């Protein structure tokens, strides 16, 4: 009979919260995201998470950078999956912090599959995706009566390189698309759209660092996109809107804020 003071208890099972960090402004974090941070032991975060968000997340948790960079050095997805499982199996409560919303181009399914296969509980905490923050910054809406009844969320590149889409449909007048990770693929996108008959004067707007103090807006056209993009030297994360131009008042407000900075 074991001694009454001997314990054979196993560590409590861990848990993983897949949390959306939003576009970068900590004021746009959800209350549910804040509660997940407060309960977390470990926060595994992506490269594009702003420092302001990380400062909030690290109040009680250890930060682990598992950033991925398009066309550059990155953590392998299988290594991120394995680390999530490793931490959670020790009994830790893990926040997997993803930029924007984890359900939008966030490799969410692969990580859920990994933790689920290990018998670990998980939950998704949605965040404000970059398209919502960026379109708000230019004073526009993603859909508008008489202009477009749908909007496409596209990725500029995938595992094979530059991503192909339904260019024929996009080239029709009045279409709107939010292109994530689209800076490097700008010339490719321009060529495909023009090849399929898109109007060269179609407005294009890029929003760099949406919602952050260093936000910048570049308004251009399909014809001038690669040249204007190169001249602007955008270095931060940027979202590209095809078919949308900034509202004049929003552009003026952005310029005013830059003058005050």
UniProtKB/TrEMBL annotation:
GO biological process: methylation; siroheme biosynthetic process
CDD domains per record: SUMT
Pfam families per UniProt: TP_methylase (PF00590)
Domain of life: Bacteria
Keywords: Methyltransferase, Porphyrin biosynthesis, S-adenosyl-L-methionine, Transferase
Name this protein carries in UniProt: uroporphyrinogen-III C-methyltransferase
EC id: 2.1.1.107
Species in which this protein is naturally found: Phaeobacter gallaeciensis
Taxonomic lineage of the native organism: Bacteria, Pseudomonadati, Pseudomonadota, Alphaproteobacteria, Rhodobacterales
GO molecular function: uroporphyrin-III C-methyltransferase activity
Domain Tetrapyrrole methylase, first and last residues per copy: 18-225
Protein family (similarity comment): Belongs to the precorrin methyltransferase family.
Recorded name of the encoding gene: cobA
Pathway field: Porphyrin-containing compound metabolism; siroheme biosynthesis; precorrin-2 from uroporphyrinogen III: step 1/1
């Amino acid at each position: 009979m074991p001694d009454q003071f001997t314990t054979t208890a196993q560590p409590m099972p861990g848990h993983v919260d897949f949390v959306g960090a939003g576009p970068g402004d900590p004021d746009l974090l959800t209350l549910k995201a804040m509660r997940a941070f407060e309960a977390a032991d470990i926060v595994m975060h992506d490269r594009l998470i702003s420092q302001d968000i990380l400062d909030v997340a690290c109040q009680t948790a250890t930060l682990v950078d598992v950033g991925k960079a398009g066309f550059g050095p990155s953590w392998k997805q299988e290594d991120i999956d394995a680390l999530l499982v490793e931490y959670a199996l020790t009994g830790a409560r893990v926040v997997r912090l993803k930029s924007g919303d984890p359900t939008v181009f966030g490799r969410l399914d692969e990580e859920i599959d990994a933790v689920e296969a290990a018998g670990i509980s998980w939950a998704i905490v949605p965040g404000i995706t970059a398209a919502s923050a960026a379109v708000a910054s230019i004073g526009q809406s993603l859909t508008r009566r008489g202009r477009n009844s749908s909007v496409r969320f596209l990725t500029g590149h995938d595992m094979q390189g530059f991503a192909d889409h339904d260019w024929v449909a996009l080239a029709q007048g009045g279409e709107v698309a939010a292109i994530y990770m689209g800076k490097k693929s700008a010339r490719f996108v321009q060529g495909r759209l023009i090849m399929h008959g898109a109007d060269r004067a179609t407005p294009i707007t890029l929003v760099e660092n949406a919602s952050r103090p260093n936000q910048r807006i570049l308004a251009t056209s399909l014809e001038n996109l690669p040249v204007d993009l190169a001249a602007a030297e955008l270095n931060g994360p940027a979202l590209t809107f095809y078919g949308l131009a900034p509202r004049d008042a929003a552009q003026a407000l952005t310029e005013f804020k830059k003058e005050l900075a």
